[in-house]
Amino acid sequence: xxxxLDGTLLVSRSAFPYFLLVAIEAGSLLRGLILLASxxxxxxxxxxxxxxxxxxxxxxxxxxxxxxxDIELVSRSVLPKFYADDVHPETWRVFNSFGxxxxxxxxxxxxxxxxxxxxxxxxxVLGTELEATKSGRATGFIKKPGVLVGDHKRxxxxxxxxxxxxxxxxxxxxxxxxxxxxxxxRSPCYLNCKITSLLFTSPSFFLSKLxxxxxxxxxxxxxxxxxxxxxxxxx
Length: 235
Known about the structure:
By secondary structure, the chain is α/β, with parallel strands linked by helices. 52% of the residues lie in helices and 13% in strands.
């Protein structure tokens, strides 16, 4: 089977908190603040321009200049405990009932692979691939074919499976329909769920919460605690 990650295997439909954690843990508090400041722009881009461009923006800000080994370290040691708290139990039961399990996600593969392989038992992750310099630093750009959304997810599955396509496809949004349509059974998950992601709140509500969030920041430790508090409140 093949499944999307955000909003399908995970309750949260937005990967923003995970990008934020990587930006802080592998980068710095300043990088995290810049990522936070970009949210209104990304919000607008996601709604009115394209999902792929919004994700590219997050990737560039969160990863540009970071050492690949630092990103891998955070992905192995920090992100799994947060991902684990966000797993949707119903989808997990379906996912766990299959022998061969693949994740198809727009998130950078390097960010999600340690968790989904170790904790979810996925056989392989088909995700967005980051470009890196010869010295082992992320450029902030991504390799072809680009962000795995829409038809790129479908093409990745076709390349991986050929004619022996997955029995079941799980997704939660319109851009997942492309890869789900080539699976033998399509099962849209939680399309009618209440959207509580920070990227889907009204601008005034988002700004008020963001202001309260920033006011609490007075040390790196407290900043991380605030990130976790807001994350658990909305996710």
